[in-house]
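To close the section, here is one more complete example, presented without commentary so you can practise reading it yourself. The ligand is zinc ion.
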Amino acid sequence: MRKNNFAQAIDLHVHTKFSGDAKITPKELVDQLHAHPFIKGVAITDHDTIRGYEEVSKLAKAFEDILIIPGIEVSVENGHIIILGIEECPTYPSSIESVIDFTKERSGVVIIPHPYRELGIGDTSEDIEADAIEVLNPNATQEENKKAENLARKINLPCVAGSDAHSLQEMWLAYTKVDAKQEVNDILRAIKNGRVKVASTR
Ligand SMILES: [Zn+2]
Ligand SMILES: [Zn+2]
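Output:
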């Protein structure tokens, strides 16, 4: 049997100033990632825009040790859905179902962030075809995160984590260990297949 090797440590939920409610600049993000001793990948998940990802990935080309995953935290009618591996926004306003179809058509990954926090989609998660649940979000309470973990177990989905950082101090507080190569498609595949472990630097 193949032995797991959680070689990648990736923060799957970070905002840049292009989110409007966040302060992190693309340059700060790239510098911090390059300087970090072991977190070497990040998914840029700005609210309803890909511009932050575009700027960050441009700057990241100067560094060989870091990986930037395209993502969007999409606003749907009753909360947020994170999609990864996609470099275009869905059309708005979007229903959850249409965002999921949009993502699957493009072979992306659907993550349900902070299901029981404010702007989480809650129990609706049980009725949709997501790929993973964010069970560790530092902006959610312990109880909300625990509920998310129970949900993931109930509907049998992989558990992932991200800092949901909107400022520099919040970066990397939670991240995901991934059994994959340092390559976007391999990481997305590993998330879908559950070759992931949640972790925290707190
Ligand atoms: Zn959110
Ligand atoms: Zn967020």
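Once you have examined the tokens, check your reading against these statements. The CA atoms of residues 113 and 134 lie 5 Å apart. The longest helix spans residues 142-154.
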